[in-house]
Amino acid sequence: MAKDEPGTTATGPVQRGTNQAGMRAFNERLVLSLVRRHRALAKSAIAGMTGLSVQTVSVIMRQLEADDLLLRGEPQRGKVGQPRVPMSINPEGAFFVGVKIGRRSLQIMLVDFEGGVRHSVTHGYDFPKTRESLDQVRSQVAEYAAMLGPKADRLAGLGLAMPSRIWEWADEIGADQAELARWADIDIAAELALDPALPVYVQDDATAACGAELAFGNPNGLMDFLHVHVGAFIGGGIVLNGALHTGRTGKAAALWPLPVSDGHGGTVPLLDRASLILLERRVLAAGLPVELLHDLSGDWESLGDVLEAWLDGAGPAIAQAVVAAASVLELGTVVVDGALPDPVRDRLVARVRDELERYDMRGFERPEVRTGTVGPDARAIGGASLPLFDRYLVDPGTLAVSGGRQAS
Q1: Are 101 and 160 in contact (CB under 8 A)?
Q2: pTM of the model as a whole
């Protein structure tokens, strides 16, 4: 894998189970995916969803239970026949490390098999330094292994989310060019792959945030949507037919270069109208405490007119980008999330909705704008989802036929 190209996980077109012994691995993944999607399922329900025989499903579920990946629930007795025994995901069955190396902070978290965050640490900085950041990741992984104790052998992978080609943005984030350029010469996956039992995955951070919404959020089972993530920069991801579409090099729906109005008759990249770097500059220029932007539980409303001006620019700019993307891809839904306090994120979503109403979209479905459900941790959680899907689950799009929800 090239150093500047995030890894992706691809799945084939198979959408139904098979009773052939050679496909047992896929069948196990399919069963785990369905149980995880529906929270709890009995073997008869899975057989009906997949086309597998009840006997085959029973064998698979017994093996998954023996491997501590599924938990047996209490029998549910009906009027006739044997009681149904629902099976659910065992949160302790496997663990994953999710890492976000961002432009302003490093986040490292431990995620369980059910998607729950067991522990998370964040280190702030002016910009990411190579050795310091990687050493902190290695140290935290060792600490998580110690925390797991006898279950440390269930640590199944490390997924890292990071801006693509971060070294090209030194001036924008006020970083030392020589120090930031060191990322171009480092194979991050190789640097962190110290244990063969802990495979390392790397993906663009905005794409990872979209993957987190698809895997751990998305309560309505959306099959097609554009995901907008507002962080130090602004980026996005796209889901088509229930699957994360990463593009040729993993940067599909990057969004930041889209030309939008500068408010004065010209155009600028979306980055220059809707990013937290822009808000940070304005906060500094106004002599306000920039540290507040690093506190997502803080009162950003105290920024007053500076925050209002940023929202006045970001809302219309994102709306313009949404119209452009939705017109090309015919997307009915846009999800907006980011490293923002919930009240600020909600206000931004409201601005985007209001601005969309100003566009003439006759003959076309106006996209619905929704608030993201994962929040500021989306990039690190998306990183953790990479080994989860690669090693245990099928692509969410596969579940569209095998009992998945098909809302659009």
Answers
A1: yes
A2: 0.87
159 and 207 Cβ atoms separated by less than 8 Å: no
**Contact criterion met (CB below 8 Å) for 3 and 390:** no
Q: How far apart are CA 242 and CA 36, in angstroms?
A: 16
Pair 227, 253: CB distance under 8 Å: yes
| pLDDT recorded at residue 190 | 94
Rounded to 5 degrees, φ, ψ at 298 are -80, 175
* Beta carbons of 326 and 334 less than 8 angstroms apart: yes
Domains belonging to the chain, first-starting first, are 21-91+393-400 (1.10.10.10), 94-210+380-391 (3.30.420.40), 220-372 (3.30.420.40)
Could you give the maximum distance between any two Cα atoms of the chain, in Å? 73
Give me 191's structure tokens: 């640097």
Which of 48, 56, 55 is closest to 26 using CA atoms? 56
Residue 407 confidence (pLDDT) = 30
Specify the DSSP class assigned to residue 197.
T
Please count the CA atoms within 13 angstroms of the CA of 134 that sit on its side-chain side: 15
Tens of pLDDT, residues 370-403: 999 999 999 999 999 999 989 998 877 666 545 4
Buried b (16+ CB within 10 A) or exposed e, 172-200: bbebeeebbeebeeeebbeebeeeeebbb
**Which position has the token pair 């785990």?**
32
Per-residue pLDDT reduced to its tens digit, 8-42? 333 333 335 555 544 568 999 999 999 998 999 99
